[in-house]
Amino acid sequence: MIDHYDAYLFDLDGVLTPTVELHRRAWQETFDELFARLGEAPYREADYFEHLDGRPRFAGVAVLLEARGIDLPEGENGDDGFASIRGIGNRKNRAFSEILARDGIEPYPGSLRLLDRLAVLRKPLAVVSSSRNAETVLAAARIRERFAAVVDGEVAAREGLPGKPAPDTFLRAAELLGVAPLRSAAFEDAGSGVAAARAGGFGLVVGVDRGAGAEALADAGAHIVVPDLEELVP
């Protein structure tokens, strides 16, 4: 079944590389400090999956703050601190960059095996990511050359594309590859990303359960859910 599509579109964090772990550590550091300053209940792991996972960085901050009843201004692009939504998002991004530079990143072995299989079949590939760090992560993981297109947070901001769960970034990647969504497969580990791919009319939407939960991914619209992409390699 997996070989029958014309193109393959992958989320980066959690599907191709374990950057989700780096993101989660960076979010934890950021919100631990913020909530301690405000006298809020501590940040929980569930906060990541419920409010941050798969969303553009600033949108995730806004959603989590709203859930906690914390009212902060949007702020300016150059903010770096805890006084605004953009300041918090930029503080998190700085923490992420420091962790990536210090610890590096390796692709999931099972994901590499599927990419190798698709390379043999000469299938066009793209990355669709909410992260503004996608190019940096792909280069650090030494897999950038495998993808004909990358539509990430930087591209979305530049082209005015709404982030996931809107389908626009997936549709833009399919357009860059020159393929119809219905003839393409999308791979996501976040409910918002699965919902985006389904809204875009992709022929196969694969949920990769790295912690979001198989039921949650299925409820979001995944046609199938796997714990690792190696399961899809014939």
Number of domains: 2
Q: In the CATH hierarchy, what is the superfamily of the largest domain?
A: HAD superfamily/HAD-like
SSE string: EHHHHHEHEHHEHEHE
- In CATH, what is the class of the largest domain? Alpha Beta
CATH architecture of the largest domain: 3-Layer(aba) Sandwich
Unreliable residue stretches: none
Instruction: Tell me roughly what share of residues is in helical segments.
Output: 40-55%
What's the β-strand tally? 6
**Largest sheet features:** 6 strands, parallel
Mean model confidence by pLDDT: 94
CATH fold label of the largest domain = Rossmann fold
State Rg. 17 Å
How many individual helices?
10
Report what the structure shows.
By secondary structure, the chain is α/β, with parallel strands linked by helices. It has two domains: 2-18 and 105-232, 3-Layer(aba) Sandwich (Rossmann fold); 21-103, DNA polymerase, domain 1, CATH 1.10.150. It is 47% helix and 10% strand. The protein is built from ten helices and six strands, in the order βαααααβαβααβαβαβ. It has helices at 19-38, 45-52, 57-67, 85-103, 109-120, 134-140, 153-159, 168-177, 191-199, 214-220, and strands at residues 7-10, 125-128, 149-151, 184-188, 204-208, 224-226. It has a six-stranded parallel sheet with strand order 3-2-1-4-5-6. The longest helix is centred in the first third of the chain and has 20 residues, at 19-38. The termini are close together.
